[in-house]
Write a structure and sequence with these properties.
- The protein contains 6 helices and 5 strands; from the N terminus they run H-E-H-E-H-H-H-E-E-E-H.
- By secondary structure, the chain is of the alpha/beta class.
- The longest helix is centred in the last third of the chain and has 19 residues, at 141-159.
């Protein structure tokens, strides 16, 4: 069993035990997080939906990310990750939402936002929305996206109170 599968399974089990539904809002991963969850039989008991919001328009239309946020801070930012996760929570039946937005490469990076920078948003009903970032080593697009999925699942576990995930 891969570490991604193990993390996804642990998150599903924890959510099932707590009666928590999950939603995702994904940009740079293009649906890989929701796929990791729904690859596991029985996931329909806790997975509500996944929003694939690759474009700024999709972020605004599907999640309610403000145009001002995108203009001022950009799609890859703390502010956008916060709004994406809060929007996924607001536009679903979920009580836990995980969001990712980043620069997977090989191009698109800058000095301020290098290839490998990913912002994660975590929203939980009744709790403040949180965001944090990672800068993954630029070992290629696939590596960055896989590490993003792994980290997002781990942050989901942390959000539901499962100790033991320290992150990369």
């Amino acid at each position: 069993m891969s570490d991604v599968t193990a993390l996804a399974s642990a998150l599903l089990d924890a959510c099932l035990a707590q009666g928590i539904m999950i939603a995702t809002a994904e940009s740079c991963t293009g649906g890989m997080i929701i796929a990791a969850l729904t690859d596991i039989a029985g996931s329909s008991a806790v997975v509500d939906r996944g929003f694939i919001t690759y474009s700024n328009e999709a972020k605004m239309e599907m999640l309610g990310v403000s145009e001002a946020t995108l203009k001022v801070h950009g799609a890859v930012s703390r502010e956008t990750a916060l709004e994406m996760s809060a929007g996924a929570l607001a536009h679903s039946r979920a009580s836990l939402a995980l969001a990712v937005t980043g620069v997977a490469g090989p191009g698109g990076g800058s000095a301020e936002k290098p290839v490998g920078l990913v912002w994660f948003g975590v929203a939980r009903k009744g709790a403040p929305v949180e965001a944090e970032f990672r800068i993954f080593e630029d070992k290629g697009r696939d590596f960055i996206r896989r590490e993003t999925v792994r980290t997002a699942l781990g942050l989901g576990l942390r959000a539901v109170g499962q100790a033991g995930f320290a992150g990369p």
